[in-house]
Amino acid sequence: MTFEEAKMAYQKFLDKNDLTPKDLLRIETHIETMKDWSQIKRHEDVLEWLQDHRQKCSMEVSEISLNDCKDWEFDTINGLIKHKTGLFFTVQGLRVKNSKTREVGFKGWDQPILKETSFNGGIIGIIRQKINSVPHYLVEAKAEPGNPDLVQLSPSLQATFSNIEQSHGGRKPYLLDYFTKPLELGCTTLFDQWMSEDGGRLYNKKNRGMLVQIPDSLEISLENTFTWLSLFQIKSLIKQDGLVNPHVRGLISHL
Length: 255
Hints:
CATH architecture of the largest domain: Alpha-Beta Complex
Largest sheet: 7 strands, mixed
Radius of gyration: 21 Å
CATH class of the largest domain: Alpha Beta
Structural class: alpha+beta
Mean pLDDT: 91
Number of helices: 7
Helix content: 10-25%
Order of helices and strands: HHHEEEEEEEEHHEEEHH
Number of strands: 11
């Protein structure tokens, strides 16, 4: 049975029992999670592909003193750490009081916390496309200095607004246009929501989470760090230690 045949049979069953959801995307995602419909890679191939990127990753990370961080400085007047441009984020202090629902009760506590220059941190987005009628999701094997194994499966786009505005002096993030002007590119936005981040480490931060469907016939020129996965594959990979980053997990949680 093909994906489309399974979807039609499932929809008939739902219609017959007056269970059809208003959101037809829900029917597709139900079928997607029943088995691996991937038209691109088997699960074993995905693991091999990711492991290959981990082995070939040239990023080197070492711990250094904050005093030695290039372009970062202590603002002694305001008591925080900041980038010399005033962009990206700062490390500043918080004092928490009347925390009766927490372990330390009314005593409260002080702590450092990361604060974006804008509380709207960035765009976290995944591109969805049907390949041979089967939905696939574009992910990247992305290296981040704080990842345990450096490379994890990440969204199609994962960029702060400082990076989007090229404040670092580097290139514009790949695939940005599909999320900033989807209608102009003939795409459909399936999900667009501000999503909060870890409030224990990040102060009032939120990212714009997006899922964008691109036309079946549209061909995207991709770096070799990107690949298409089925929803079943993503959910299977989440069950394994440290393969899928938190942003992917957050974005697919609504499916």
